[in-house]
Amino acid sequence: MNLPVIIKFVIDLLAVLLLALGIKGLSKVKSARDANRLAAFAMSLSVLGLLSYYLGTSGIAIQSWIWIIIGSIIGSLFGAILAKKVPMTSMPETVALFNGCGGMSSLLVALGVAIFPISSAQENFDFFKSFINEVSISVSIFVGAITFTGSIVAMAKLQGWLSTPGWTQSKVRHFVNIVFAVASLIAFFDLINGNTSSIWLLVIVSSLLGIGVTLPIGGADMPVVISLLNSYSGIAAAAAGFVVDSQLLIVAGAMVGAAGLILTQVMCKGMNRSLVSVLFGGSLSAQSTASSGSGEYTNITSCSVEECALTLEAANKVIIVPGYGLAVAQAQHTLREVTKKLEQNGIEVVYAIHPVAGRMPGHMNVLLAEADVPYEQLKEMDVVNPDFPATDVVLVLGANDVVNPQAKNDRSSPLYGMPVLDVQEARTVFVIKRGMSAGYSGIKNDLFDLPNTSMVFGDAKKILNDLIGELKDLGVGEK
Amino acid sequence: MSFISLLWVLLLGSLLGLELIGKVPPTLHTPLMSGANAISGITMLAALTLIVKAEGNIPLLIIGSVSLGFALFNVVGGFFVTDRMLAMFSRKPSNKK
């Protein structure tokens, strides 16, 4: 062992340790921010370790430096700009985009090594080693391509650029995906057998498989898919680690892959969906058409902003239930103004956060935090559910499926069994909503039909602004 | 490194990952996913290796460079975006009313 090898070994070990501490720290509120920085530091450390190792052994050619600098600057610059500019509401699709690019990177490494075998692979050429090499290249390409196209489709669907095509909800999709899967397997084994030309077939069919699997999945399940794809990108990185013989890459990739799986599991639990039904069940709305749960609304009461303001003024306790609609309308700051006024009048205000409100767990917390809502006012579902009977007014803002009583009462409903917020227990429920369209699951919401529910139709931000005006007229919040 | 020891590394790394996050408050799901996602951009090391070992092979240098770009896009963007999200949580105590 010479010095560069020892130094690299120590640095790698340190990097792995810090990365592990980073992931661990990220799962606690107090340490999360420092943990994120720690992980970032570990990543830069690992780069320095690798570069110093090559400088101390084979050296790095000027030409290589140039391409390293070009790639780093462009990638980092775009990443940093996007990260600074993107609005908080589009966090889920941003994570999906970043994730897809990680998968793409692993794919490209494997592709590069496959087309132009790098020197070290040729030097000690023996059958076993080349076999392992082929396998890891194939895995890296396969998983990398699925991660990339799957993430891009997920992003496009969340952004609303892509809708769910009708055929993907029929049985045809299983047939199509099986064809893609079988074709990838054939290409996979062909490649391992040494037929390098089938690499392009593998790239193409595994990309198509990524699209084919993600496209039928409804938006409500997208967070789970993104989390799963995040786990895949870890696996792709680990496979790339086998390709270039890097333990650090294998450890880090495996850690992210495994942690991603756990997180996916946690999210599935929060929505009462099994991973299998998310992946193969198609979107919920397709299932609901067959169930008896769907139907027409019979008893909708709509009311004006003025009535809403009057009821709020008379309340002692108000619970706000935010959902994706709030995020879309960018109404979090306006909402904060409304609740400030109510608080100044001595009204108790609490926010009820369903674990999967919005498009991603934690989405609402991030959004409300942006509007300076005190952390103590955000209550999780289990904590807040017993409070609803003692609550005067519930304001449902752009949430839908997470307040659907069907999940509790209707066994035939596809939502049945999903934990929901029991808002109907409150004395009065106001649902601020643009129209009568269904929620992301595409299922009728029985809450809207209940006698103590009133609908206030309109854009959340506009209504909240009107509400501020009405409250002012009533003298609320002005002492 | 022999293949077998690399497999050990894979196994132990996976076990570590399974153990690292047990109970995560829902608040942190998005930041955790985003942070873990940034770490998966560690494949930038593979891209770097590719470029260093390319030995003047231009197409390989380009592939490596593009791959490095994608990976760093993931890493830098991922960490920044996670920090942005987490900054909102940590700002909280000072804003108590």
Short synopsis of the structure:
With 479 residues, chain A is α/β, with parallel strands linked by helices. Chain A contains 19 helices and six strands. In chain A, helix 16 links the parallel strand 2 and strand 3 (378-380).
Short key terms for the protein model shown above:
A: alpha/beta, six-stranded parallel sheet, elongated, B: 97 residues, mainly alpha, disordered C terminus, NAD (chain B), transmembrane helix (chain B), cell inner membrane (chain B)
Q: How are the SSEs placed, and which strands pair?
A:
The complex is a heterodimer of chains A (479) and B (97).
Chain A: H1 3-25, H2 32-56, H3 62-85, H4 91-115, H5 119-123, H6 127-159, H7 172-192, H8 198-214, H9 222-244, H10 247-271, H11 275-280, H12 284-288, H13 305-313, E1 317-322, H14 324-329, H15 332-344, E2 348-353, H16 363-370, E3 378-380, H17 381-384, E4 393-397, H18 406-409, E5 428-433, E6 453-457, H19 460-473
Parallel strand pairs in A: 1-2, 1-4, 2-3, 4-5, 5-6
Helix pairs in contact in A: 1-2, 1-10, 4-6, 4-9, 6-7, 6-8, 6-9, 7-8, 9-10, 13-19, 15-19
Chain B: H1 3-20, H2 29-39, H3 44-52, H4 58-90
Helix pairs in contact in B: 2-4, 3-4
Report on this model:
The complex is a heterodimer of chains A (479) and B (97). Chain A has 479 residues and is of the alpha/beta class. Chain A has helices spanning 3-25, 32-56, 62-85, 91-115, 119-123, 127-159, 172-192, 198-214, 222-244, 247-271, 275-280, 284-288, 305-313, 324-329, 332-344, 363-370, 381-384, 406-409, 460-473, and strands at 317-322, 348-353, 378-380, 393-397, 428-433, 453-457. Chain A is elongated and about 80 Å long. Chain A starts with a helix and ends in a 6-residue tail after the last helix. Chain B has 97 residues and is mainly alpha-helical. Chain B has four helices and no strands. Chain B has helices at 3-20, 29-39, 44-52, 58-90. The radius of gyration of chain B is 18 Å and the shape is flat. The interface between A and B is large, with 120 and 89 residues.
